[in-house]
UniProtKB/TrEMBL annotation:
Residues 94-525 form the N,N-dimethylformamidase beta subunit-like C-terminal domain. Transmembrane segments: none annotated. It comes from the Bacteria. Gene3D superfamilies: 3.40.50.880. It comes from Nitratireductor rhodophyticola. It holds the Pfam family DMFA2_C. This is ThuA domain-containing protein.
Length: 545
């Protein structure tokens, strides 16, 4: 038995503080650390080719700082260290989350040609006003050059989701200080700002979103990750997105397992899709929620032409647009029909709402076989908090499960808690003990459902007051509006029950494998042997090893 703990820690917070941790809006802004002093930074791009120059934008209360960079792979490799660099405090506009910080360049350094593709973590350290050190972290990607890369995997970091969740400056695609009442989420967010605390690096004990504590009978939901964030000065969204919580775990695992992995950002899918052509296998992991039309075009064409895409990720949900050379990400989400100018224009397909919306007409399932609207939350809050921790397996004879010894009805990944937080699914029927996508599910031809667990679009208990729950019914109402055409209770009742699946299907000359869960990477991090084996089975087949 994995779960023995039933006592939730309080992280030193009072009940009122715990409530604020979950329902409040708190975020990083310049000056937040007051008398201690601060240092912050961002780079002028998410990803760079080898040989490029990185422009570093720094704002600090100190006049000197130290720069250290490590490559964050199977091992941590120091690549650059510079002392005594000059800094100054720079003014930051109030709406920096939306328009960018606009800081001038403080320092530039060159990426040496011998720095392998991967993620590079920046640490800046300066002396605080009280004499104690102040630090900040950032991460940038060294991407590969285009060209044939036999035997190598390309991992695409979910940078659209990082941008969407970044709380730095006060606004993201979830909560914000935009709008006349300074209380709206921002439909436009900038990449020209620091990452919030916990996106680049996290302590080992930082809770993940899915509960590792068994919720006692009739107890209201608890959200340890947000409570820990509030108590320890991390971003409210540290566990929802970012290199540290998600993408890093796959990258490190794959390198340790002996795979040669290159890393790119989603900007490359959008602006230089030819980068995919050199690879036999392209991988997407973690919490991967925001994509542009062009990014999907890139993957669809790649697979159609014989590429193999493996997605070990959840929450394929929203269409974004990029503006200003990719420095701004636009997603009106729930407000798209009311506010997105594209929805008012002739060609509405790029309206920044969900993929299943009539005006967009490009169901998410057409690219990766699953969508977020038929999946969603599991293993946290009031969404199946005591639900399965792994994928219930229906087709154990599938090649992906070879060597795992798994049986029909077994759970795959329960040891490593692979099933959770947000999962992707399809509408389905079960016949003779085997699930199949329904005819109007949007599933691609030839899709097989290998594993299937339950999820929920709504925190809903007959015994727990709605006030004690974090998730409103906004998601359920939105999905009802999109899939049924209205937000009535009857419509919500029709769509509120979701699933999370593992599926596999051929497409053109290529193939797609999709384990639709944000937490697959957590199971790799925790060394779950069956999840490791399935991941290797997929990579080996797709690399033709
Ligand atoms: Fe999400």
């Amino acid at each position: 038995m994995h779960i023995i703990e039933t006592e939730f820690p309080d992280f030193g917070l009072t009940p009122e503080q715990r409530r604020e941790a979950v329902l409040g809006h708190y975020y990083e802004i310049p000056g937040m650390d007051g008398a201690r002093g601060e240092i912050w930074c961002y780079t002028d791009a998410y990803a760079y080719p080898p040989g490029a120059t990185v422009n570093l934008h720094v704002s600090a209360t100190a006049s000197r700082y130290r720069l250290e960079i490590v490559r964050d792979g199977a091992t941590e490799t120091p690549v650059l260290s510079q002392d005594g660099l000059a800094a100054a405090w720079q003014d930051t506009p109030d709406q920096c989350s939306v328009i960018g910080c606009g800081w001038s360049v403080s320092h530039a350094f060159r990426i040496s040609e011998d720095w392998p593709s991967g993620a590079y973590r920046i640490t800046l350290t300066a002396e605080g006003r009280d004499g104690n050190p102040v630090t900040c972290h950032h991460v940038f990607i060294v991407r590969p050059l285009a060209g044939r890369k036999p035997g190598r995997v390309l991992q695409v970091a979910a940078t659209g989701t990082w941008t969407a969740y970044n709380t730095w400056g006060g606004s993201n695609h979830y909560q914000g200080i935009t709008g006349p009442g300074r209380n709206q989420y921002a439909p436009m967010v900038s990449t020209e700002r620091p990452f919030c605390r916990g996106f680049a690096v996290l302590p080992e004990n930082a809770p993940r979103v899915p509960l590792e504590i068994y919720t006692p009978p009739a107890a209201p939901p608890r959200y340890p990750h947000m409570e820990w964030a509030y108590a320890n000065g991390y971003s409210k969204k540290y566990a929802s997105a970012g290199w540290a919580s998600y993408d890093s775990h796959f990258f490190r695992w794959a390198e340790r397992a002996g795979y040669a992995v290159d890393l790119a950002s989603q900007h490359e899918l959008h602006f230089t899709p030819e980068i995919l052509d050199g690879y036999d296998c392209v991988v997407f992991v973690g919490h991967d929620e925001y994509w542009t039309w062009e990014m999907r075009d890139a993957v669809d064409a790649y697979v159609e032409n014989g590429g193999r895409a493996a997605r070990f990720a959840g929450n394929f949900m929203w269409q974004t647009r990029l503006e200003d050379d990719g420095k701004k990400q636009v997603c009106y989400k729930y407000r798209a029909r009311a506010e997105d100018p594209v929805y008012q224009s002739e060609d509405k397909r790029r309206t920044s709402g969900c993929w299943e919306a009539e005006e967009t007409g490009r169901p998410a399932a057409r690219t990766f076989g699953l969508n977020a609207l038929r999946g969603l939350y599991v293993g946290w809050g009031g969404c199946a908090p005591r639900g399965v921790r792994g994928f219930p397996v229906y087709r154990p004879e599938h090649w992906a499960f070879a060597g795992t010894g798994i049986y029909y009805g077994d759970l795959l990944g329960a040891d490593g808690h692979a099933f959770g937080y947000e999962v992707d699914g399809l509408d389905y029927v079960i016949r003779g003990g085997l699930p199949e996508p329904t005819e109007d599910s949007g599933a691609p031809e030839g899709l097989e459902i290998l594993a299937l667990g339950m999820s929920s679009l709504k925190e809903e208990s007959a015994d727990i007051p709605a006030d004690d729950q974090f998730l409103s019914d906004a998601d359920a109402k939105f999905v009802a509006e999109t899939l049924v055409g209205n937000q009535s209770d009857e419509a919500v009742n029709r769509i509120k029950r979701g699933s999370g699946m593992i599926v596999n299907f051929p497409r053109g000359r290529g193939e797609v494998f999709h384990a639709g869960s944000c937490e697959w990477v957590a199971a790799l991090k925790r060394g779950d042997a069956m999840v490791e084996r399935v991941t290797s089975n997929v990579l080996d087949r797709y690399l033709s090893r």
